[in-house]
Amino acid sequence: MVAVNLKNPVEGLITLSELLEGSIERKDQETTKELLDMIGNQANQTLQLLETLFDWSKLQSGKVVCEMEELILIQVVDHVLHDLKLLYTLKNINIETNISEQVIVNADYKMLRTVLRNLISNAVKFTYSGGSVEISANVEGDFVQIEVKDNGIGIGETNLGKLFHVDTAQPGIGTDNERGTGLGLIICKEFVEKLGGSINVASTEGVGSVFTFLVQSAKTTGIENEE
Questions:
Q1: What is d(CA 218, CA 202) in angstroms, rounded to the nearest whole number?
Q2: Which residues does 137 contact at the CB level (< 8 Å), separation at least 6?
Q3: Strands 104-108 and 143-150
Q4: How far apart are the C-alpha atoms of 116 and 102, rounded to whole Å?
Q5: For position 224, what pLDDT does the model report?
Q6: pLDDT tens across 102-140, in order?
Q7: pTM
Q8: What is the dihedral of CA 103, 100, 144, 140, to 10 degrees?
Q9: Domains and CATH numbers, the chain
Q10: Which residues are 151's β-sheet partners?
Q11: d(CA 119, CA 113)
Q12: Pairing mode, if any, of strands 94-98 and 132-140?
């Protein structure tokens, strides 16, 4: 699986680096800048792929340990967006966050970060340049409902039921020909369930997708009082 999934992006980096060498020799600054952007984008995609495969290998080997702690949700989201900045900047995707600083969850930091990373990077992958991705959260009783919404290509009804199952999941190709393993959403499901929550999706082809998952609420200071 590692060999198959890494072959194409690594070959792509080699090809781009060869083209970059030629543009530098020609002193073609415009082409050089474009190629550098493409190399950065390709390297970022390859890193995301490696992280997904690493998470999957940990799940399969039973080495995932859940360490629950109180986390300020917006801080975790900001960390993920920092990691993905090159990905959505190069694609000109507008990221909106609608999460109160008062929302605190009880979760494992690495697991929550992995779930958010996969959902947000998927939203960017399947959204056209100039589109938008919105990340929001609401307190629902003892849980916090987190939503990642995009206005991308959407998912057909026949494929919705296949997303979270390893025997039916298929690698998707993004709007800029980004490639994945098909494992990201499966990892999300397993991690969310280990955190005591659940995950689901609603989507319409040509309109976009909304992925929603629940994690335990630790504190809602100021929010519950207002209610």
A1: 27
A2: 73, 98, 99, 100, 103, 144, 145, 146, 147
A3: unpaired
A4: 19
A5: 41
A6: 999 999 998 999 899 989 989 999 999 999 999 999 999
A7: 0.78
A8: 110
A9: 67-226 (3.30.565.10)
A10: none
A11: 10
A12: parallel
